[in-house]
# Entry
Amino acid sequence: MSSTRAEVFEQVRARYIGLLTSVLWKLTGDRELFTEAMQYALLGIWQHLGKLNGEKASAYIYRIALSANSKAWRNRIGRDGQLTGHAGFEKSLNEQFDREELTMIVRREISQLPDKQAKAVVMRYLEQQDYQAIAGKLSCSEAGVRSHVSKALAKLKNKLEALALQEL
# Structure
């Protein structure tokens, strides 16, 4: 008895929905952005269904989620690099908004890093995975992961410092 593509998709979706939800929510932190990223992730799973049957399926799903997050962020950022108008980005004086705004800026900047750097820094600091686990998922050495994380942090630091200077 052979399963149809839709049945296989449903099995994969059911098995990995927890991973997708966790990763995308940590990356987006915003309901609208999360919803858009989830749609892109599910589309990515559908498109790459044939590659999701091995023991590295969860790593592949993770990569799909990171790509979906990047695409959702690119859609939110206008052609001029500025955020498009969304209710969550209106000016507010309270500290909660400032923290949320900073979180969104950091997430946006992470999404603009080179792919392996973004994945490494997300897995290390948002998901708090150890270097060995990250190395397995990125198919590189632990030293390579440390290098990706270090470079990502340096780029983020420079970009965030530049943004802070613009605010002054």
In short: Helices lie at 5-28, 31-47, 57-76, 95-111, 115-126, 131-138, 142-167. The two ends are 66 Å apart (CA to CA). Residues 1-89 form a domain with the Rna Polymerase Sigma Factor; Chain: A fold (CATH 1.10.1740). Residues 133 and 142 are 9 Å apart (CA to CA).
